[in-house]
Design a protein that fits this description.
The protein is an alpha+beta fold. 24% of the residues lie in helices and 41% in strands. The chain is built from two helices and four strands, in the order ββαββα. It has a four-stranded antiparallel β-sheet, sandwiched between helices. The longest helix has 11 residues.
Length: 78
């Protein structure tokens, strides 16, 4: 798993999770962890193939979400 801070210093993050083993409930666990930390997921892509799992998510602190989304993906601003 990797976590990167997004440029702009607004508390945004990009998280990549990859598991080469089947791990039932991993997506739910990751999303619950975001919630417990007070983070919002603004955009995410998840995929499962055979026995692997991949998640890429862009998020930020609750209340700072709209400006982070427009910085990461200007086309998604509205």
């Amino acid at each position: 798993m990797t976590v990167e801070t997004l440029v702009g210093g607004h508390g945004g993050f990009l998280i990549n999770v990859f598991s080469d083993k089947s791990c039932p409930g991993l997506l739910v666990s990751v999303l619950e962890a975001f919630d417990e930390l007070g983070l919002s997921v603004l955009q995410a892509t998840a995929s499962c193939a055979d026995d692997s799992f991949r998640l890429e998510a862009v998020g930020g602190e609750v209340g700072k979400s709209s400006s982070l989304l427009s910085e990461h993906n200007p086309a998604a601003a509205y």
